[in-house]
Structure formats: C-alpha cells, structure tokens
Prior knowledge:
The protein is mainly alpha-helical. It has helices spanning 24-85, 88-97, and strands at residues 15-17, 20-22. It is rod-shaped and about 145 Å long. The termini are far apart.
Amino acid sequence: MAQARTDYTKVASPQVLGGIYVAPHRIDIFKYLMICMIVFTIVSVFHVWSRFKIVDLNLQMSEISRQMNEAEQEQKCLKLEAASLRTPARIEAIAKNELGMALPTEQQVIHVK
C-alpha cells in the first residue's frame, strides 16, 4: 500500500492580541468593520456639513431678496420724484419766482428763415 503523506506545518493557530487569542478571520472582520465605521463617519460629517451650507445659503438668499425688494421700492419712489420734478408747471414756477425769468415778448422773439 502506498503511504499517504500529510503536511501539518501549515496549521492555523490563533494569534495573540493584547493577551487574548483571536482567530485570523475575526481580525479580518474587525478591520472590515473599522473601515465601514470610518467611511460611515466621513459620509455623516459630509452630510451634516452640506445641510449646514444649504441652510446658510438659504439665509443669504433671503437676505439678498429682502435687499433687492427694498432697492426696487426705493427705485419706484425715485422715479416718482423725478417725474414730479420734471413737470412743466413746476419748472415755470421756479423760473418765474426764484430766477426772475419771464416769457419773452413779441419784440424779443426773432424768427430765423
């Protein structure tokens, strides 16, 4: 009969980790879980940061919108004031009362042909 030869030199033995024996597959699971926790932490921090930025940008948008509305109202008031200052009756009253001007007489008007 043929003799079967077996090699027992590669026997899996538990490793020592801080005085506690831990099997190699448990170390692999621990590494995998630590990587998952680190990735989860990074994703969570990014999510919180992005939500904070969204809230901050919304506040800035509302402030700018408020300022724009105020500027539009001021522009409307200034247009109304400019229109009232341009009326011919007001200009004529200022010319007569404050500047002492008068309408020209027939002799002061010269027609050019």
